[in-house]
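Appendix B. Raw example, untouched.
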Amino acid sequence: MSTRILIVDDEPNMQQLIDDALSMHDMVTTTAGSALEAIQKIREQSFDIVLTDIRMPEMSGLELCQKIHDNRPDIPVIVMTAFGNLDTAVETIRAGAFDFVTKPFEMDLLLAAVKRAEQYRRLSQQVKMLRYQTADQRAGSFGPLIGQSEVMQELFELLARISDTQSTILISGESGTGKELVARSIHENSNRSDEKFVVVNCAALPESLLESELFGHTKGAFTGAETDKPGLFRRADGGTIFLDEIGEMPMEMQSKLLRVLEESRVTPVGGNTEIEVNARVISATNRDLTVEVENKKFRRDLYFRLNVIPVEVPPLRLRGTDILILAQHFLEHFARQIDRPIKAIAPATAKLLVEYRWPGNVRELRNVIERAVALTDLDQISVDDLPANIREHQPEKFVLNVEDPSQLLPMSEIERQYIQKVLESTGGNKTLAAKLLGFDRTTLYRKIDQLRIEVKK
């Protein structure tokens, strides 16, 4: 829909000048010759932005701005003034103005202010809508997983199809993307949901203890083994065992795990009897195991046994406004925890959250919102409540701005640079990069080879 703008000025020539300029940019304009007329029109019609002069009879533009701010804070007001000094700027801010421009102004500057107000208005509406949605009402979810982006919808569809299968699943994705939550969601939506979901962090357990923890041990098997211990595979019998950070598992343990997967039996440390187990295995890694296999750091046969059904969890930076949905979800959660009446994310804050790259993914976002909820003195999270690295982040842009024909690049170089950028954005994940580029993996590998693209990890 076109942006609807109310122009408030007691000079008809100025009204017409602004009307003509905004109409050229597909904006729908209405004019008012006084603040009182503007108030009446705001009651009768719907507007996205108000442009108002300051000096007008009966009621000033600042008084109008204050009334709009008090009664319709969702409508950004841009004040036009012939007195562009510091005192005037302070007055407009105190009155609740979104922005101000100084007369006589260049129309490009006014248009830039209107564009900023448009973005502010859109974010305000989105944040307001999120505030009234609870997690179970949000469109597009799978268990506790939340998201409306296309990549998450595709993930939810895949999870729904595979949850009831008995095949092993390998979940890959960057650190902090929620791989354990994905695994738990698969378990809770499977026919094993009434049984245990057992989590093993392969990176957190010392190599000397990993075998005993996974497969159990008998009394006296080693110093300190005072009783028999069943092990985590047997604890997960009938349910699901989640092997997180599987890429960190030592090579010797990999061969023993492969045997368990092939035979569905475990042998406790110090024991001679094999014990049958029926646990579905879901594993996860933030490494590219194909590279680990090539570097002989991970067994090829184990990789294929674990990777019967591959699941790729997208990084947060590729999930668009899912960032705001998750931020609002975390806000509500932490506000309830500390019993604080914090209800919203300010539009300026939302803009920064969407633009930030989120190298720590959902885990980083959760921590940022928890911090902001703890720090804020307001009923909404403001820019000042965010960490400095997010406040100062400058969004990256891929820009082609060349006037000299001799500097223009051949299409192959533009394609090389763009594919390189997509690969960097996905952290070198070729499966996800191919999906974003609209290629299959074979085509992407061929282009990487032909264009000599360096894949950085």
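End of appendix B.
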